[in-house]
Amino acid sequence: MPEKYHIKTSLIQPRLPRIGKFGVVDWSEDCARCHNCVKKACIYDKYREENTFIRDIDEVHTLYYECMGCFYCIQNCTKNLLTMSINPDYRKLGNAYWTPQILGTTWLEAETGKVPVSGAGYRGKFSGQGFDSMWTDMSEIVRPTRDGIHGREYISTSVDIGRKPSHLDFENDKLITVLPPIISLPFPVIFDMSSEEHTLPAVDSCVVLTAKQTGLIAIVDSKKWKDIKLENKTDYLDHVAFYLNPDGPEIPKDILCKTRLIEICDDKNVGQHIESIKRMHSEIIVSVRVNLNDKAVKRVEELSKINVEAVHLVADLNGNEIGVKNPRFIKEVIREIHDNLIKNEKRDEITLIAGGGIALSEHVAKALICGADLVSINVPLLIALECRLCESCKPGDYCPAKLDKAIDLKYGSGRMTNLMGAWHWQIVELMGAMGMREARRLRGDVGRAMFKDEIEEEIYGPIFRKQL
Fold it and tell me: What is the pLDDT of residues 208-232, one digit of tens each?
């Protein structure tokens, strides 16, 4: 049995005061100074921590930072002096898709490396837009052998990048089929290039270092390779995939030959570009970067016919189609592409990498269920560094998260590594509850999920559909 994949995490404290959801307003003028004050009995001990914290307070709003929302103090105060309030700065975080809850969860995971637990439980909707309109099947959660990280069965999160032959040929009991190169990743995530929607700090060095620490791969723009501030950069090439930017410098052959994956932009001459790269380095896998628009399904089909090994589908920041009036979410497009490749008997000959809108660990599993082989992320790594995803972010503007300044490598890579560690544990727990032992088998297995639109159509369609 192979050694279990494990990401080593450690506590990495935030640089700035936390922006929590809840705060408690204390009308202390009527306080009776009870001996058994509910503040002292806080089950999370947050009041005691707050008293220590406010000694160095700079702004009043930082008082709202770590309340767990359990309502214990409010319910048990004998004078009814405490009132729960939502932090106004919390409401301003992110956008309609990258909600304050997602940012807060990511911050906690990046700090502790643990699966987040809320004292207030889940208080949101049971369904919504995007990935929130599908639910994973947890029917195997009662099986003791598949109890996630505590179970006796080995749950593999490994996935492959590359073409798999449809059959094997033998001659005189010897394999004569030439096996194409394959990359095995221990976790179905790669790190994408920085998002264009937000001003980013010089965090590429942190991303590359995190890729090596977690055994994953980071896509690096060829224009930015010279800006990577790491000692002995060639030692990291096994975990780097260069994006050959047409406007960037040419990567030297001796450096390119030490990598396992490379990415090129999609154009009409993509086949010739792949052939020239293969002549230089036959064992490298070439991925084609394709924008997720209304032509993506047809384009992936065309690329599969010229034996492209991998396609990186890139949606917008919120996971929607790019340049479409009524865009579809990435999960719908992935399902259509996956089904189309199966229909054309090309599914195992091409790897689908889905990027855009992957905000939580559960989105990784849901993207795989819809048909992706693995996903790419970039925004969660930025959020791990306490970014607030300001919509008005522009070069030179004031950054409330102080990301316009240099980021310490230990802090940056530590927070990103913690995030991946927390995601890995959650994927293992989820797969255990679904009865899945391999992430590879999760690909396209829509029977392991329920889709809101399909359920509504099945139940309400015959009743409310217009009769002909």
Answer: 999 999 999 999 999 989 888 898 9
E strand or H helix at 265 = strand 261-265
Q: What would the pLDDT profile of 255-269 be if each residue is shown by its tens digit? A: 998 999 999 999 999
Beta strands in 66-217 (DSSP E): 82-86, 134-136, 159-161, 170-171, 174-175, 183-185, 189-191
Indicate the residue type of 269.
N
**147 confidence band (pLDDT: 50, 70, 90):** low
Tokens of 195: 């998002």
CB 223, CB 432: distance < 8 Å? no
> Which of 393, 389, 423 minimizes the C-alpha distance to 19?
389
What is the rounded CA–CA span in Å between residue 367 and residue 375? 7
| The token pair that represents 434 in the structure block | 């679904």
Cβ atoms of residues 314 and 292 within 8 Å: yes
DSSP characters over 347-363 = GGGSEEEEESS--SHHH
Q: Which domains does the chain have, with CATH numbers?
A: 22-128 (no CATH), 159-456 (3.20.20.70)
| One-letter identity of residue 123 | R
What secondary structure does DSSP assign to 286-323, as a single string? Answer: EEEEEE-STTHHHHHHHHHHTT-SEEEEE--TTSBPSS
**Residue 211 to residue 196: CA distance in whole angstroms:** 21
Phi and psi at 240, nearest 5°, equal -120, 135
pLDDT tens for 95-128 read 999 999 999 999 999 999 998 876 556 666 778 8
User: Taking all residues of the chain, what is their mean pLDDT, rounded to a whole number?
Assistant: 86
pLDDT value for 460:
82
Q: Is 173 left (phi over 0), alpha (psi -120 to 50) or beta?
A: left
Q: Which of 65, 58, 53 is nearest to 19 (CA)?
A: 65
Q: What's the pLDDT score for residue 316?
A: 94
- 415 within 8 A of 384, measured Cβ to Cβ: yes
Please state, in angstroms and rounded to a whole number, the distance separating the CA atoms of residues 261 and 307: 16
Backbone phi, psi, residue 338, to 5° = -60, -50
Q: Inform me whether the pLDDT recorded for 60 exceeds 50.
A: no
| pLDDT of amino acid 374 | 97
Answer left, alpha or beta for residue 344, where phi above 0 means left and psi between -120 and 50 means alpha: alpha
Burial class of residue 357 (count of CB atoms within 10 Å of its CB; 0-12, 13-18, 19+): buried
Q: CB within 8 A of 219, min separation 6: which ones?
A: 190, 191, 192, 193, 241, 242, 243, 263, 376
